[in-house]
Design goal:
single chain; about 120 residues; two-stranded antiparallel ribbon; elongated; mainly alpha; about 30% helix
Length: about 120
């Protein structure tokens, strides 16, 4: 089964991620989205990173929650419970994740055109 580009209409291979003519990203067909329950789309986890927004100490719990779609409060509660009642394994795991997980890169502002559109330099 071949698919066609939504932008230019070019016929593409089933395994293509981008159109070879115009470069438009190809979205996966509905049949390739896997789900444990019918009617619910499955989103695979994203890359583990420590976000800069919403973190308490180092962002480990927030990063795990964002990556797997969990509630950050429950991740923090489980971490504290493992630290207190698990012989410190929660603290050790937190420090290991802190070292291993990369921090979210800084986002730079978009460059603006200079001089502004509509103005003339004389």
């Amino acid at each position: 089964m071949s698919i066609s580009c939504k932008n230019c209409g070019n016929a593409m291979n089933d395994e293509a991620r981008f159109c070879s003519v115009c470069g438009t990203p190809v979205s996966a067909p509905q049949s390739q989205q896997y789900s444990a329950q019918p009617g619910v789309a499955y989103a695979p986890p994203t890359r583990l990173i420590r976000p800069r927004m919403g973190r308490m100490i180092a962002g480990v719990c927030q990063g795990l929650a964002n990556s797997y779609g969990w509630d950050v409060v429950w991740v923090r509660v489980v971490t504290v419970l493992l630290t207190i009642f698990g012989g410190g394994i929660g603290l050790v795991a937190y420090v290991v994740f802190w070292i291993v997980m990369p921090e979210e890169p800084l986002s730079l502002p978009q460059p603006t055109a200079w001089p502004p559109q509509g103005s003339s330099r004389a």
